[in-house]
Structures are given as C-alpha cells and as structure tokens.
Carboxypeptidase Q
Amino acid sequence: MKNLALLLFLITIQVFAQTPDEKQLKLIYDAALTQGKAYDWLNYISNQIGGRLSGSVQAQKAVEYTKQQMESLGLDKVWLQPVMVPKWVRGTPEFAYFETSPGMTTNIPICALGGSVATPPGGVKANLVEVHGLEELKSLGRKKLEGKIVFFNRPMDPKKIETFEAYSNCVDQRTSGAAEAAKYGAVGVIVRSMNLRLDDFPHTGAMSYGDTPIKDRIPAAAISTNGAELLSITLKLNPDIKFAFRQSCQNLEDVPSFNVIGEIRGSVHPEEIMVVGGHLDSWDLGQGAQDDGAGCVQSMEVLRLLKKTGYRPKRTIRVVLFMNEENGLRGGTKYAEEAKAKNEKHVFALESDSGGYTPRGFSFDCSDANLAQAHGWKKMFEPYLIHFFEKGYSGADILPLKNDQIVLAGLRPDSQRYFDVHHSANDTFDQVNKRELELGAATMASLVYLFDKYGVVQ
Amino acid sequence: MKNLALLLFLITIQVFAQTPDEKQLKLIYDAALTQGKAYDWLNYISNQIGGRLSGSVQAQKAVEYTKQQMESLGLDKVWLQPVMVPKWVRGTPEFAYFETSPGMTTNIPICALGGSVATPPGGVKANLVEVHGLEELKSLGRKKLEGKIVFFNRPMDPKKIETFEAYSNCVDQRTSGAAEAAKYGAVGVIVRSMNLRLDDFPHTGAMSYGDTPIKDRIPAAAISTNGAELLSITLKLNPDIKFAFRQSCQNLEDVPSFNVIGEIRGSVHPEEIMVVGGHLDSWDLGQGAQDDGAGCVQSMEVLRLLKKTGYRPKRTIRVVLFMNEENGLRGGTKYAEEAKAKNEKHVFALESDSGGYTPRGFSFDCSDANLAQAHGWKKMFEPYLIHFFEKGYSGADILPLKNDQIVLAGLRPDSQRYFDVHHSANDTFDQVNKRELELGAATMASLVYLFDKYGVVQ
C-alpha cells in the first residue's frame, strides 16, 4: 500500500506539479486532504460547544478552545484581543399561532430576530397585513397598518444563481422591517425566513431599530418558509385572521469578549501583515457549523498547512477569529482600530464566511493590478477546479481594514445549500462535508502562499 | 455571514441576456429554477418507488411511472423498448462478524456485491488475509490464500480532487477481487466500500466472475469503511482472527424489462437524433436518488424545458431512460443495437450519471472540431458558474453509440459528496438539493439547445 501510494503520488506530481509554485500547491492540497485538522476542530466547536452568540458561555468556551488549539500549532504568538460585545438573549422558546375563528388556531414555527425586543408577557395578538417590501408600507399608510402585525413575505429570488445575491435583495425586510413598520403604528413584525427551500425552520438574523425611540420599538420574529406560505394562503381566504406571538428576548448590557489571534512572524518583511479569518460567534439556534465555524477552522488550518508543508512565510501571517460578526461587528471594528492605532501595515486580508462548501474561487476587493496578479495564478488552480477570480465582496470582518493598498478577498464556495441552514437550527456539523471543508482550507492557504511569496502590488 | 454589509455586495454575476442564445439560456435556467418538475419526479421515484434493481417490481413501477409522466409532457412519441435483463436478488439480510477468540465476536456491516453467489446456508468462516490490490494476490500465492477469506482494503485516494478518479483506481478490487482470489483457493472475499468517508454504510456494486467455472465461484461482500478500519487494526493485533459471513443472494433467469423513451421530432432534420439520458435502474439498498434517479429526471426535464421555453428543435431530441446500467448495461447495449439495425443517425448523446450535485460542466468524447465548438460556448455558461469543458468520459449507457461522428458528453457535477452515498442505503432523496438538481437539468438543456441549433461538426 505504501508503495502504491508513493507511485500514485509520483504520477500526480509529474502531471500537475512542475514549477515550485505548482509543487507547493500540491503539497498544500495533499496535506489538507490527508492530514487535515479542520474537520476535527469543527466537530468540537459544533458538537461540544454549539451555538456561540456573542456574550454567551459558549462564545467564551470557543475563545478558550481555539486559543488552546492555536497554541498547540507552534505559532510564534497567540493572544486574545479584548472587545466589548452586545449581549442579546433569546429567553424562553417563542410561540406563535394564527386564529381563523375564535378558538380555531394553528401553530407556526417562529423565532425572535436578533436584537428584537420582547412582546408583552401575554404576547401580541392582532390582524395581519401581508406586504412584500418596505416601500409597500408607505403606500398602505398608518390607516391600514396601525394596530396590525406586518407580515413581510418577499421570497428570495430562485433565479439568482449566486444565492447571496438573492439574500441581499431580500434581507432589508429583516433588518429594517420593524423600524419601518413602527413608523405607521404597527404592533409587531414577522418576516419570511431568508431560505430558498420550503421547510419548517425559522431563520433568525440581525435586525436594527435605527433611531426608533425605545418606547416605540415593536417585536420582530422570523417565520419558516412553510409557515409563510401557509399564512399567505390562509390570509387570501380569510383576511381577518388574527396572528399571535410571544417572545421574551432581551438586550442586556455589553459584556467583555475577545478576538482570538495567532501569527507566524514573517522572515523577510515581518512588518507586512496578512490576515486570514472567519467569525467565531454564531447565532444560537444551531451549532454555527457552516456559519461560521467552517471559516474559523479553515483559517486556523491555513497557518497549520503552511507550517506542515515546510513553507516559511516572508510576511507575517495572522489568523484572526473575529467575535460578534452577527450582531454588532465589534470584533472586526476593534481589530481594525487597533491596527490603525499601532500603525500596523496590513497588506492582505482573506475571509471565509460563506460556508465550508466546495470552493469555487475568490472575490477580490483590491486594485486592478492585484486582481491581474491573481488572474495570473488561475492556471495553477485549475487542477483543483478553482475557477472564480472576480471583483467583489470580501467579508464583513475584514472590510474595516480597507484602504487603497490592501488586497481584501473572500472565499467563494458553492452557495446552493448555504441558505438551507443559515441562521437556523439546521446549521449543524452533519451539514458539513469533510472534503469540501478541506478543499476550502487548501484553496485559502494556496492564495495566502502566493500573495506572501510575490507580495501585494503597491 | 450577515446582512447589513451585504448591501455593499458587489454583484459580479450579472446575467446580461443580449444575444438570442444568451436569452434562450436565461429562459431555460429561469424555468428550471422557478417551474421545475425534476425534484417532484425524483421525490416520487425515490420515496414512492425506491431502489429499482433490474428485474424488480420497483424497476417495473419506475418504467410505468416515467412513461406516464413523459406522456403528460406532450412529446411527439413515447414508447417502451423491450430488453431482457439479468435478475439478481439479495435475499435475506447479510450478516458478518469477526471472532478474536472462540465466542468473542464483533458484528460488522456488510452487503453482498451485486452478482455474487450466496455463501453456504451456514455461512463461510475462515481466517483473513488483508491485501491492497489484485497484484498482491500473486505474490502471496495459493499457499497463503487457500481456504482463506481475502480482505481487499485499498482505500480511495483522498488526494484526487475528482472523486471518480479515486473510484476508478480502486474499483478493480470489487469487480474482479472474487474471480482473482478464487484462482488461489480463497473461500470468500470482502471488499472495503468505495467511500471516501469513514462511516457504517456498506456500498454494493457490480462484480464479475469472468470465466471462473460455476463450481469455483466464491461469495463476495462489501464492508463499511469503519468496518474495514476496525478489521485492519484488529488483524494487526491478532492475525489469527476468524471472519464469518452469510448471504443468500441469487442469480436468477433473465427477465423482460424496458428502456423508456420519449422524443420531440425535429422540425428541420428529423433524421438526426440527439439523445439525453440517465439510467432508471438502481441498486436496491437505498432509493437510487443520486444514482441515477437524478440523471433520469434531469433528462426528462431537458425536453420539458425546451418545450416550456418555446424552443422548437431542428433535430429529433430523444430522452432515453436506460434499464440495467448497474449490473449488465443491457439497456444501453440494446438501444445502440436497435439504432444500428434501423440505420438511425445519432449525432449527439449526453448522459447524466454522476449525481444531481451542482453542475460544473461537461466532459466530451468527440472530435476536436466539436470540442472547439463547445469551447466557443463557454462564455455563455459563465453566468451559471459552468466552467468545465474538457475531453473525457461520457456515460456507460451512451458509450455503445460511439462512432467517429457522434458527440458524446457527460454532465460533470461537483463530485465531493457522491461516494458518500453511492450504491449504499444512504442514497436517498434527502441527499439531493433541489436547486443543484435543477441547475444540472438547465445546464444539460442549454447544451442540447446549442448542439441542436448549430449542429454537430461532421
């Protein structure tokens, strides 16, 4: 078996790995697929820790676990960067039903949106008004909305090939629905889950009241896609149905937390810093496996793979596990602030926060010269079926680092299944495929290697 | 990944529909993603019919169901093509254990390989010899193998990015292991499942005794990957363990069955036939959802999408659901024989038999001129993240049609998860993602449209 494996290895080397760069990429992919640690780490984070909402015990456990694991990798330095984070708690399980006539009720799966206020202890019960966007509120006006619960039911557009595009075209209902509906005297908001599939999982996510005075804030919840369909059909048959929901979530005082950081110091240009990261916090309903446990373990794996393959970086490579991406972005903001205060020179940052699915490539937020440089490497990625190198969004946590010189990049995995699980109880370890996760880590490590070796075009 | 920052998402995949071809592709993808039927069909085939081994009641039900569904599409002609198929039945559930000392036994999940003979009614019990390939048998020789059970334990190579490559480097153990081991007097064969993941599912699949006389045929079973690992470790500690297994499978007489065929007659060149297909039979352990229910419903969907989008084909487009790919290829062989006998001119054939995962492109078995023509269309597929257009394998069922003129093509979906489910009880409907399935159907329909419109270069 050993001989055969060696033979296969040599054959593959002959086929794919001719230049030193091609050889290094092959070493990285081979190590990721045969000696990877990312999947084991994610198993622990998902199954032993679970959902890691900012300020929770689980988030703190994840800080401690990942710090300890980074320390075991023999990096040059591992530390915690303190950051104050908002603390929102869900409270007792939410409850909702609609009533077609007195006593005739049908339960519907809901969950409070992150940041929402509670309902009164007895819940909210009112007639429903179904709308499909924020602009529709204005046309209805206070007369039709006062005292009502607004039901936002614009679905994600299945025609979008890249599902994040469908998400970004829909998510204003969730983020701003309550603030806008409150202006017209609505008493509550329920929002169709950001999910392309019809199922029974409500999907939570951040919402904001903007400058709505505290006394005017109304509770907001997500409803499953099946629930939304049922409710919409029922409303067409009987516009007078009442909807009732109860939730006991709370916004508490900010609490201390941490970004977890580890680095390999550069051997030639230690002052030039390259960041690779994901966010360690997650929503509370699932295990935060795809969002974004996957990105965290892939980022840790990048440094491990570079060490494992014997590559000594010229520049300082830093893994950052950001806290509080989901409901505050305090970790990303803090990291950029401190980098600026210390006058650190960040030349590159890569985030993985689109799930641990089969990687397709990267989107780059950088100068044309650096994009051209990346395009020059495309051929090397072809054996790994990596083909997407386009301008685009990088990642929420690294965006605060943006300036004219830096290369920001986002890993782009296959997006078809992501919103099936995103922010829901369905975001669990079993949704992650080991090889897909490992291929993502190897793809990230390869890009980091190339930008480290050749530098960022200034 | 969250929300507010996504307002900054730079949309890189703009689907500009400018040329008539680009417009037609957009119509096809939109229809597949918003009005698709493939997922509903697959639900029925998987959950209402289930595993469809050639000659089974389920296979016949699938013939009737798909014929009926094709008839509802308003095709020009739908018919059944009779073909005799082998009938192998699994019998009562298999059973296996290893014994470290008398009475100390550990059960291990196994399943008979398709085509295998039964063990004697009391089972086979013998010492084990672990090997990693067929060539190793020769070096061991009769002395070390006579009276033993041979345990083939060469794993799939995780370093292969395309998992089908790892499969084809391993599968000789399954197909020929028993015939080879019998030459040296072995009394049974167990083979590590063709699965890149460590889990408890045994994966069946076809095996052949070649010209081994009937009296010398020995039973062959697959063992789960976890079982194989456990057995291998145990053998290292205690080479004298005994392995016992019992199976009651049988090869019966051939029985009649059918290929299911439907066509839209060409408006300009009706004599030129283009085939799109998958195989309707499956293994019996799961539901045959990914292998190859997915390919069947995608192929039916191709014709439906062409009609739905108002496209009138110049050539005759034929969907063929082949019977008996898994253990005989009688359907594919029969179809090609009749085509030849009738002097039909087949110019193109496309098969989907690699799962209904996110499509990445096609492999082509055709002339350089036709590959060049396909390359010329690559740009049109970019908005749909279809990037792979290479020479390669098409599909088992359409290969008998091969000649110098025909274009043979195989859909190439993402392959990372395929062998997790392939030929096992795990190949069920819930493993299929609706959008991934639909994108595959649309990608196939787009290629068929282009080859119909522009013709095959002769």
